[in-house]
Amino acid sequence: MRVLIKGAEIIDKNSTHHRTVKNVLVVDGIIQQISNEDNGAETIIDAHGLQLSIGWFDMRTTIGEPGFEHKEDIASVCAAAAAGGFTDIASLPDTKPVVQSKNVVSFIKSKCRDQLVQVHPMAAVTNNREGKEITEMMDLHYAGAVAFTDGDLPIWHSDVLLKTLQYLKTFDGLLINHAEDNHISHFGQMNESIESTMLGLKGIPKIAEELMVERDLSILKYTGGKIHFAHISSPKSVALISLAKSEGLSVTCDVAAYQLVLNDTLVQTFDTNLKVNPPLRTQEDIQLLIAAVATGAIDAIVSDHIPQDVESKNLEFDLAEFGMIGLETTFGIVNKALSSCLLIEQLLDKIAYRPREILKLHIPTIEENQPANLTLFDPNMEWQFEKSHIKSKSKNTPFLGHTLKGRAKAVFNNNHFILNY
Amino acid sequence: MSQLSVPHLLGIKELTREDIELILTTAKHFKEIINRPIKKVPSLRDVTIANVFFENSTRTRLSFELAQKRLSADVVNFSSSSSSVKKGETLLDTVNNILAMKVDMIVMRHSSVGAPHFLAKHIKANIVNAGDGTHEHPTQALLDSFSIHEKLGVVEGKKVCIFGDILHSRVALSNIFALKKQGAEVMVCGPNTLLPRYLNELGVKVELDLRKALQWCDVANVLRIQLERQTIKYFPSLREYSLYYGINKEILDSLDKEILIMHPGPINRGIEITSDVADSPHSIILDQVENGVAVRMAVLYLLAGRG
Hints:
Chain A has helices at residues 74-83, 102-111, 137-143, 158-168, 194-199, 207-223, 235-246, 283-295, 310-313, 330-338, 344-358; strands spanning 2-10, 20-27, 30-35, 43-46, 51-54, 56-61, 86-91, 118-121, 175-177, 190-191, 203-204, 226-229, 250-256, 300-302, 374-384, 403-413, 416-419. In chain A, strands 1, 2, 3, 4, 5, 15, 16 and 17 form an eight-stranded mixed β-sheet that branches. In chain A, α4 (158-168) crosses α6 (207-223) and α6 packs parallel to α7 (235-246). Chain A has eleven helices and 17 strands. Helix content of chain A is 27%, strand content 22%. In chain A, α7 links the parallel β12 (226-229) and β13. Chain A has 421 residues and is of the alpha/beta class. Chain B has helices at 17-34, 59-70, 91-100, 115-122, 138-152, 170-181, 210-216, 238-245, 249-254, 275-278, 285-303; strands at residues 48-53, 74-79, 105-110, 126-132, 159-163, 185-189, 205-207, 219-222, 260-262. The longest helix of chain B has 19 residues, at 285-303. At the A-B interface, α5 of A face α4 of B.
């Protein structure tokens, strides 16, 4: 199968073709030629005005399967990822059964072996994510688990965290932690601010996150090893992490895309799609988080894709589940919010390069004779996000009807390609 | 013809000052009517109202039902002490079932914040919020304002202090919104653990000392300590609470002025307020109950478009 991507600007900092407009010929999943020639191909994609990067990578996706197929399954989450421009996703272990045996790791990997989008399973740190006993992490690592995390649950027991970090050092494994003191955040529904006071909703203060970041960093300093903090929401957490980095600790962090554009005043509408954990913070926090993305203090941007069926969301606010879907909207919202302060290279760093570096995965490149792992996108296209665009089984997004900027036109990986529009 | 700016009474937050004044003026007429020998008017005889209570209530439900009957509305009552979810039916299904029987208006109390706002997005009937979790209880705030106006002639410029568990109180939040919109000065007083943060951003004064707060205010609105809403301990004991935050005659006598005492009920006698204060001439607790019927009549009448 020959596909010619005609006239796209190549954006790949590691490629000799970086920032050049070329025709890229993909034959049987391999980049055969990058030139100005107009070779014949079965499929020709007119890519004038578009940009071509390595395939995007999402570090934080809930995949639903096995166990929650009524919300999402591996086929639907991969379709959603492709629609959003992602060729690779790292999946959370919050399935049923929890990803804590190599059987489940193999099951997830086998489901996408011949597909375009590759799912890289992360495994649980503790059995059933209860925070008590650590899983067979070494076995899981050698079976293909790319990192260890209890998903949206913190490792609340300090000694379990300590032992985990020590144990992970055996194979240079990565702990991805959700920082939350869940005594302070207990029953919390939204950010603690004037908004929560006016709504009478129990607030989740930023210190619930900051305290755990501080504790985790103290333990990391003692044990060595490495931690990645997931979906950070407090600028002070970022400052603590930056300080630890400057002291030489091996620590990184990411932010959820929606956390850079939605603030807590929106909760006044009681739209349960805005109920996320950590909660939407204030506009001032958003400005500081965006600045931290720009300076590199925040390493990666994630979709934090959490599919919830309508029965889990069309409810009273306090009864609704946390989370929103995000794979299809991540680029469009982040590119819109950040294009004024970030070069496209910097944005791609957050959604394509840094995630792979943090997870120690191979970074593809756009060169001849390399496998075609590519995302072709229009960085300037303004489009209205509608329900019909959603490939995920769940529709829990507050972005319906919003105008987004930038959209993935096609993705290439594993000898497949998908044209989105 | 005077009308409210909103189709529902979800909270005081959504009302304008003009809305509040219209409700209070209308309530004044109804108070006069319910003190006549024939207490009933035919205004809502073509209207069917369902009182849907997912939380226990005695006086609010009774007050709404009386208000509805005095307006000649048809009334049906639904109450369930457990939440609808525990019974396996969603709130939306429960209410849609009631509406299928051709009900025009829903008066709802629910333990979830925003439950009436959620309903308003999904159903056509007018909704009156009779209390949603720890959020709002708008008719209570309106009747409190009505009572202050009735006793002091004016709300604007008056100093009102709300005492007790502000954190878990929908009465406090609705009162804060209502009083601020009418130009009153508002203070809250209680143990620090029962006061929500950021209240000062609403222009509300915060005082931790009971005596100083009483000395400041013209009106003391004393809230019930709601142990049933407290999932963890916010203060050590009821004994300590009543010793340091209970209002008794001795403290009131030591002030160099007289203040109006209010309480939304039900009273924990001997805890937040002693019997000799609750039953004193300065207490307008039973006036509040009487005014509640008139205010609720006004709300229903105006929402039905009869203004």
